[in-house]
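Input for the complex:
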Amino acid sequence: MTAPGTTVELRGLTKSYDGTQVVADLNLVVRPGSLTALLGPSGCGKTTTLKVVAGLLDADAGDVLFDGRSVLSLRAEQRPVAMVFQKPLLFPHLSLGDNVGFGLRMRKVPKKERVERVERALELVRLQDLASRRVGEVSGGQEQRVALARALVTEPSVLLLDEPFSALDASLRGEVRDLVRGLQQELGVTTLFVTHDQEEAVAMSDDIALLLEGKVEQSGPPRDFYAAPASMKVARFFGGRNELTAIVREGTVHSALGQWATSRPDGDAVLTVRPEAVVLASEGLPATVLEARFLGTHVAVTVELADGSRLQLHAPPSVTLPSHVHLSVDPAATTLLER
Amino acid sequence: MIRLLPRWLLAIGLLLPFVPLLVWAGSGQWRYPGVVPQRGSGRGLRLLVDPASDIPQGLLTSLLLGVTVSVIACAVGLCAGRALGLYAFRGKRAVQFLLLAPAIVPGLAVTLGIQVFFLRYRLAGTLPGVVLVQLLPTIPYVTLVLGSAFANFETGYEEQARTLGAGPLRTFWHVTLPVLRPSLIVAAFFAFLISWSEYILTLLIGGGTVKTLPLLLFAYIGSSDQNVAAALALLVVLPPFLLVLVTSRFLTGSQTGAVGFGRL
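Predicted:
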């Protein structure tokens, strides 16, 4: 069941509902065999994008290409995709086995082969004994695994997942998530995965495309979003960053943290830095401790700098804090962004 | 309330009215003051299957009408029900209200007007004419049942089927219809029953040429041939009774919650 990795490319995708633009000139390349998360708040157009790729919706403009070939002329049932929705959507009139075999039946796969492939697909999701059960006789997590088997059994070139874990209990979610990730890597099927949960996106995907207001705000490996957010919007979506006012003059950035060289153009800017990158030191930037909260793995400390601006930092859990401390910040760990 | 009654009491209450019919149907002579008929006879029951009588033909006509009307009404109801249950469109409220009109306006009042129309287009006195006129009271019921079924229908099933390689037609056949099956059975059953017991519309438009069982029943009651009337009455009751037995699990809604007039 190894699918040759398919490259998916979205070019200038645009879609409006009743005059409101949901997807606005969206461009994205999904690497073959990768799991790419379409991450974004609700209403950012991520499900719409997925449905356009599936062929369930027509885009107003733009193109969808699989391995460089446009699939817009193919109807949903002709595209080499399979989709798993938020709800398992198992057909209630069919047994679990027949549900898994549905796609094969529609594609006129002979019965004998169908039975074998259904069996193998159910084994993949570790439900081999449940083929004859009826919908409603198994748990929600099991139903979602059947839905996954039903999608994978057709050996799609592209797998589309529309928040497939959001309807599951937290305890089940992790389990099904690991299963999906494991199978996706084993089968090497290019997967587009819609989620609004940034932790889920970071934990599961090779790449993340952050969708804000119908556009890809930033795309790349998860660590980029922490190390180098492309804009204030991205930094704010991922949250947790300290924001300090800064000014760039003649290739030097001036801020409460000090001054160093930058390649950015002159003007006002925001200096952002993650709390982990701010370290307590024996000498350096003087600061006053305002609040310290013990959080188990670390202590979240709020300090005030000499100019009155506030900063969050993470101190080791064993530390005893005096009221006045010194800080050290590695300029390389900071990101200068446009206001 | 019904739960409080013992089942056997309920059964007796329902079946009691049929006892005199059974006795009448099998009696030859039954005069006052006899508590039971003086003489038994199989004449009434024999006539039901006698090819020389018009009853076997009437049974066939009624069955054919019932099935045809039911199938057409369901086909129309599926389309209309989908539109009403799933989509928002201008004038939806008006359509919903008009659907109830046949249940509010007495059939007799409009039938006279319709008859003129049917006469002009030579539909009066024909089987197609009667089918058409019987669709009048059936389509609203079927549309209401299927409309509420579609209102509860998960359209995600259809999207899921499409992404699994089923075209629109196959999605409808392999997914939509089976998912709606309980409601569809209820709707078809309603349509058949309405057609089966329709009298006035059939009489006026059929003009006596299209003889259904209710028409024959009225004729025999009028002729005071009690044996045949009673036997015929039993025959008229039998198919709906059997249908209820077969479809009861859908009617009570124990199979699925998406049946009936729940929500529209």
